[in-house]
Write a structure and sequence with these properties.
Helix content is 68%, strand content 0%. The protein is mostly helical. It is flat and about 60 Å long. Bound molecules: zinc ion.
Amino acid sequence: MNNKKNRDRELRELLIKKKLGLLAEVKKAMGEKLDDDVRMTFDLLKDNPDKSVDELLKYVNARIIGNRSEEIDDIDSALNKLNEGMYGICEECGDDIPIKRLEVVPAALYCVPCQHEIDRKNNDEISRKDRSWIPVKDEYYLSEKE
Ligand SMILES: [Zn+2]
């Protein structure tokens, strides 16, 4: 069981390092984009005079840090799973997911062979149907996630 303990500790360090890196990136991006934000918000306001500045700023910010903050959410839920001792275990076959894979995809639920199998099935499924049923993701607003 020592192995599991070591692995979990290694995973925790990896996740925390990744999260700090992302937070630093977001901070940097927000600093650099501040001028752009103001300009973009002003342009949006011209075209959408009925919207509040607050609302538009949220939209602009969400566009800039949206991807990153989703990644941060992924890492937070990974850390939660880790605390429960459930992180990094393939949900399909129950094997440990290699740390190298988790480093690249912290939210990975399956080991590589199982993921391939699932992707293959999904692709078959989609190509048999009309692809237009795939829902477009809603605009992402950071504020709604706290
Ligand atoms: Zn598996």
